[in-house]
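Worked example 3 (structure in, sequence out).
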């Protein structure tokens, strides 16, 4: 009975490897690009975040909304300033209203209720107009609020296939080799400077001060020591900075390697869980569904903790990425092998009991 289960698990593993490597990265990339485009549109409108704050440059209008109900798009305490014409703006006040985006978001439909309009006409004699309205609808065009689907060539590690990540790993490793070469030259200069005895130079300066009466010569000796100390500090800072660059690049390499092995180890877990589940089911089949579900969830939780913890440790460089990603499968494979042995011994014992 175990052979068909393992064959099915093997086929499922192959399908998952194909999905994780060829399909899922493109889906992740498209989802990120779409989310980024929608986020730009939402961030451009910023009505919810701007509640009670004056919003300038909304097309030809300036808007102040004191309260917004995001679920229904209902507004309260609206003040609208129409600056489309020269001269003083037309001011529209409304106690309530409603907002809607039209088309691709480039048009805003603002419906106002129970408000009034104030307008000042400039001329030889300024005239003030005041009027009320029961309902007024405004369509505000603003290209900055348009939804745009912007393609992106950048891909994170979760948006790359295995071959692309392998190429990036090789490229980063070549950069690391060049960085280590620069580090060697910086370290050599740092050690050369440290071999210079600063205390001895200070004593030499004091002797020269006693021997030489000229002020400019004493200042020259002081400047020599100060210049050497500054150069030593600069070399030490360059050494620390180069180490930080190397550490960051090594961390990025580890992230790519973790993602590569994770794309393979998680599908391989199908085989491992089949190896564990088949004998485990044979051992606990008479103990009820609740016990079976509980044990299954326990094994899944242990595996997930292994995987998450290993990924975190590998990203930080504490353990090698292959070990981090494949250790859970190895541990559970050993558990499955042990359970198979237990089932085999149990069946052998029952067979022997029947024969006797």
């Amino acid at each position: 009975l175990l052979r068909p289960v393992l064959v099915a698990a093997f086929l499922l593993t192959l399908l998952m490897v194909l999905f994780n490597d060829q399909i899922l990265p493109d889906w992740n990339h498209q989802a990120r690009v779409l989310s980024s485009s929608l986020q730009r549109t939402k961030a451009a409108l910023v009505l919810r975040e701007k509640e009670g704050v004056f919003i300038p440059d909304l097309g030809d209008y300036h808007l102040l909304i004191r309260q917004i109900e995001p679920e229904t798009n209902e507004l309260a305490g609206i003040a609208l300033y129409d600056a489309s014409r020269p001269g003083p703006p037309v001011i529209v006040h409304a106690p309530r209203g409603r907002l809607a985006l039209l088309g691709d978001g480039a048009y805003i439909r603002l419906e106002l209720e129970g408000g009034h309009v104030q307008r000042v006409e400039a001329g030889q004699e300024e005239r003030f107009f005041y009027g009320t309205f029961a309902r007024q609808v405004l369509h505000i065009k603003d290209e900055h609020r348009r939804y745009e689907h912007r393609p992106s060539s950048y891909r994170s590690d979760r948006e790359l296939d295995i071959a692309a990540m392998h190429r990036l790993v090789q490229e980063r490793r070549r950069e690391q080799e060049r960085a280590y070469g620069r580090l060697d030259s910086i370290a050599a200069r740092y050690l050369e400077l440290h071999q210079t005895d600063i205390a001895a130079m200070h004593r030499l300066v004091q002797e020269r001060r006693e021997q030489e009466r000229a002020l400019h010569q004493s200042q020259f000796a002081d400047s020599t020591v100060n210049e050497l100390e500054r150069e030593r500090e600069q070399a030490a800072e360059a050494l620390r900075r180069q180490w930080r660059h190397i550490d960051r690049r090594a961390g990025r390499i580890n992230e790519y390697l973790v993602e590569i092995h994770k794309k393979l180890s998680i599908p391989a877990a199908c085989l491992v869980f089949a190896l564990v589940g088949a004998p485990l089911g044979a051992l606990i089949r008479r103990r009820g569904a609740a016990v079976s579900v509980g044990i299954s969830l326990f094994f899944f939780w242990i595996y997930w903790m292994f995987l998450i913890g290993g990924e975190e440790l590998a990203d930080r460089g504490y353990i090698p990425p292959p070990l981090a990603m494949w250790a859970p499968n190895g541990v559970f494979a050993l558990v499955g092998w042990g359970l198979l042995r237990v089932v085999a011994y149990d069946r052998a014992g029952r067979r022997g009991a029947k024969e006797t």
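Notes: The longest helix spans residues 215-284. Residues 160-258 form one domain.
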